[in-house]
Design goal:
By secondary structure, the protein is mainly alpha-helical. Helices cover 57% and strands 0% of the residues. The chain contains five helices and no strands. 23% of the residues are buried.
Length: 87
C-alpha cells in the first residue's frame, strides 16, 4: 500500500511512514498472510477510526499513538467533512 492509498484511507500525511512500517512489520512477522488489499484496508481504516482501541496492539500501536498525536487540522479533508455531516 502506498502513501496515496494510505492517505485516502484517512491516514494523515504525518503518519504515513508509521503506517507503512506497521504494514511491513505485520508482513515480516508472518502476520501479513492475506494482509493485502481488502484486509489491509480494513485494518488501517479501523485504526484510523478508533486509534484508542489499538494503543496496546503489538503491530498497530505505533500508528494508533501517532494518530492520537496528530492535531485535527492535519486530518484529511474528507474525514473533516464526514465528521461535520455526522454532527
Amino acid at each position: 500500500m502506498n502513501r496515496r492509498q494510505l492517505q485516502k484511507l484517512g491516514v494523515p500525511r504525518d503518519c504515513v511512514a508509521v503506517a507503512v512500517n506497521a504494514l511491513q512489520t505485520a508482513a515480516t512477522q508472518k502476520l501479513g498472510m492475506g494482509l493485502k488489499g481488502k484486509r489491509a484496508k480494513q485494518l488501517v481504516t479501523a485504526v484510523v477510526a478508533a486509534p484508542e482501541n489499538y494503543t496496546d496492539d503489538p503491530i498497530w500501536s505505533p500508528l494508533a499513538i501517532a494518530m492520537q498525536a496528530v492535531p485535527c487540522s492535519v486530518a484529511p479533508q474528507g474525514l473533516l467533512n464526514a465528521d461535520l455531516v455526522r454532527r
